[in-house]
Design a protein that fits this description.
The longest helix is centred in the first third of the chain and has 31 residues. The chain is an all-alpha fold. α4 packs antiparallel against α5. The model has no long low-confidence stretch (mean pLDDT 96). The protein has a single domain, classed as Up-down Bundle (Ferritin).
Length: 160
C-alpha cells in the first residue's frame, strides 16, 4: 500500500528503499523485544547495572524503530510493525529463553546487535544504489548508534 507523497523520488526508488527499511524495522522490533527480555530476566552479579543497561539499550532501539518506521511513511508506504510480521521477517538470532545470568544476556544481545549492525551497513550501500541518499543517511546514523550500543554491551564481556 502506498500513499501520495510529493517527495521527488520516483516510486520505484521509494519502493526499493521501503523494502530495505521494512526488513530493518522487523529486526529492530525484535531487538527491542530482546532488550526488554534481558532487562526483565537478568539475574546474578551486577544485576542492577545490567538491568539498567538493558533498559537503556531498549530506549535507544525504540528510537531507531521510530526513525525507520517514520522514514517508511515519509516515503509514502506503510510501516508494518505487527508482531506476526516481525516474527516472520526478523533475521536476528532467536533469544534464548533460558538466559538468566548477566553474561548469557550480554552474549545473546551482543550477537543480535552485531547481526543488526551488519545488515544495516549493507543497507547503506543498497539504499545508495537504489538512488535514495537520504535513506542511506538514515542507515548510516542507525549503524553508528548500533555500534555504540554494541561497544557498551561488549565492554562487560571483556576480561580484565
Amino acid at each position: 500500500m502506498t500513499f501520495t507523497s510529493r517527495i521527488d523520488l520516483p516510486e520505484h526508488v521509494r519502493k526499493a528503499a521501503c523494502v530495505l527499511l521494512q526488513a530493518r524495522l522487523s529486526d529492530a522490533l525484535d531487538l527491542e523485544a530482546q532488550a526488554k527480555q534481558a532487562h526483565w530476566n537478568v539475574k546474578g552479579p551486577h544485576f542492577l547495572q545490567l538491568h539498567q543497561l538493558f533498559d537503556s539499550l531498549h530506549s535507544v532501539v525504540e528510537e531507531l524503530v521510530d526513525t525507520i518506521a517514520e522514514r517508511i511513511t515519509a516515503l509514502g508506504h506503510v510501516a508494518d510493525g505487527r508482531v506476526t510480521t516481525t516474527a516472520a521477517a526478523t533475521t536476528l538470532y532467536g533469544y534464548p529463553l533460558e538466559a538468566a545470568g548477566g553474561e548469557a544476556h550480554l552474549k545473546a544481545l551482543s550477537a543480535s546487535l552485531a547481526s543488526f549492525g551488519k545488515a544495516v551497513r549493507g543497507d547503506i550501500a543498497r539504499a545508495e544504489s537504489a538512488g535514495d541518499a537520504d535513506t542511506a543517511d538514515v542507515f548510516t546514523q542507525i549503524s553508528r548508534d548500533a555500534d555504540k550500543q554494541l561497544w557498551l554491551l561488549e565492554a562487560h564481556l571483556q576480561a580484565h
